[in-house]
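_Per-residue structure_
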Amino acid sequence: MNSASHTALFSLALPEAWGEPIDCRGNSPGDDIATASPGALFDDRRDGRCRPLFETEHDLARIRGAARRLALITPVAGGALDALANYTFGPGFTFKIAGDSAPENLKGAAQQVLDELLDDNDLCGVLDRELHTRSREEGEAFLQLVPRPNGRCALRFLEPEQITEPARPRPLEDWLGVGESFASSWSFGVHTRLDEPATPLGYHIIHDAAGRDWDYVPAPRVEHVRRNVPRNAKRGVSEAILRRNTAEGAALQAAIAWILQPGSAETLVSGYPRGELPVCERPSPAGTGYERVRRYPPGTILRPSAGLEYKPGPLGSERIPHFLQVAQYVLRSIGLRWNMPEYLISGDASNANYASTLVAESPFVKAREADQQFFRRHFQSLCWKVLRLAWEAGRFDRFALPWEQLVSRLDLRIGTPAVASRDPLALAQTQALQLQAGILSRRTAASQAGLEFEVERRQMAEEAGGQQSHDQPPSSSST
């Protein structure tokens, strides 16, 4: 075999073993190797694009459609997303206003705004989990801030399809007061400077399919969560992972119930197989035409010509372990994207080491802690935008502070639940040594133990006062 043949076999075997990356048009790299681009091009990431993932809104729509079908129809996908949300958010994040230079009434007013935000929008336990699921499933999520009376704020999800490039941007730019010297970009519905795709100025939103009912929402009124793309990409993409060759090959074989095999050489020339399934056409993945395929629904029986002997199908008892291995491989490859232990994605606990799954050093814990910081930054941005709306509505007028000074006096702290399992006794012993050495504060120690420092101090004072009054002897009356 010559070197060219070796190269061709290697190019086919490598995707089969590791899974093919699928581009935005559904093509695999081996479909047209001769005409593939030899390297990166100047326009690959220009103006918010992210080739080879996407370069148009149509590409994004195709990715979202496939990801939604996978997430809504496949129980494994739903279970995996729920597990990720459980470990990332747990009982929910905490939102506290602090700041040594701010008076208590200012901190109380700001805390009241945040408490109203949490209560009005079910931010902890409902909206946060949907935000997580949307960002995983579709690669992005849009939260619009809608002002309400009395300086309150409602959060509304915008569908990704609503964010689209305007058909005639020039009248919109005139309405916004953007001069011709300002080079605007409206690609993918995100308004930016042409040379700054990572800094959104606003979003063009439509409310009907024709785009006649539209709106422009400035960036301070939208929190845009993007995933899996570089910073200069204007839109995010889904985390759906396809392992096409091995999985589809196994599924095709599993669809065949049994095969009837010719019993002698004479029957091999008796004619073409009878009863074959009809060939049908479906749109090609590239969207350029149709391709001829043969479908094998579950329970298919292949019937060649007469004079045959029965032969078990590919899913015969001797091959069942191989198909189970294929299924486990596909699930492990999906879980690898999130550093998930195998039992969380497959439900098979035979290979699970529970003692090492949720310790602080495990990859799964590190990945979820990184997720917490990712969402913590977005929640911080969201809270400051809500406080700004409340300030504009006059909620802080009695303090007579400009917005910049108000921000400098307040400290927004968002707490995240612990992901790793901790030994309470070992934690207490470590904290005792750190407190004795003077390298740990009591407030931090309480936070590590999952306690509210101020609440515990107040309750301890109340208990001490009650105990003291209880221990005092009753006063004797003089006669």
